[in-house]
Amino acid sequence: MNEISYQIGLWYDQHRRDLPWRHTRDAYRIWLSEIILQQTRVAQGMDYYERFVAAYPRVDDLAAAPLDSVLKLWQGLGYYSRARNLHAAAQQVMAWRKEHGGKEFPDTFADLIGLKGVGRYTAAAIASFASEERVAVVDGNVYRVLARLFDIDTPIDTAQGQKLFQLLADGLLPQTVGYDDGHGSSSRHNQAMMELGALLCTPAQPKCSECPVGEHCLARAAGTIGERPVKQGRTRVRERHFTYTIYIYKDMLWVHQRGAGDIWQGLWEFVLNEDGEIPAGMKDQATLLLERKHQLTHQTIYATFHVVRLPDDKAPETNAAIATLPDDYRPMTWMEWQQLAVPRLIDEANKRLSAWF
Asked: Is 3 a catalytic residue?
């Protein structure tokens, strides 16, 4: 197994991508990059990482920021629970710091695993990259590399599979630390395993002929590369139908902030009627703005957006549709609305809606 680690490491030295978070041992910045890159392509995450570092150069800045500002900066990345957890974890670090002699940010697996939104993979990655703690990182790329390398048909989404793959990953870690050439580095090895999965051992059309450990790959020898890794089952995708009505009165429109317990918690949206239509009395006045199918991991949203312009010469409260809105809806100017964090679907409607103001 050490030969495998050695060859992957040599390949990594020649082919690794130049990414900003690989030029630092700052646990805070490494943590930022890891949270941003969850469920996000590197090309997209790069810009967001730079924006967050510029806006919040230290964890103190992030912890002190209003959640709405953090969500606004996150806008477009999706999976907004990551942004909420990021903000909550920054505040946890402030409390943690008082108990650890003013240390800037946790950099051990044991301390990191307690942070909001930080699981085993993320804790291992930060501890390895920031302080060379000897912990193996197992993400989606590493699961795929290991499943093919050892031709494993145990599903990766089972407790048994997760335990098995963690043991294999642990076994591939360099046995010694501190070689002058870096070959004993925990961070280098973990980065190399992930990079191999990202660049060569890809889900579709893997570049097996370029793989530095192709001669050791049991799935390649058995002809089962396309069948690895194995997943036990897929989560059922739920369909939802959203009908948005955008009421405009002069330079104002009515919006609300989503509460807890659903997608887009803490984000803002227009008047919504799920599994329904716009109010009957508004149909003749409504203009169709946009129709979209919006795919999330476990949900498919079919959304329609209608615009209703209210007459300027009548108070909006005299309109029955406005008068009967739930209490959490509030009028807001178009300029105020632009400052709030919204889901990508709403942002797409906003771009078309700008012509109405």
From this structure: no
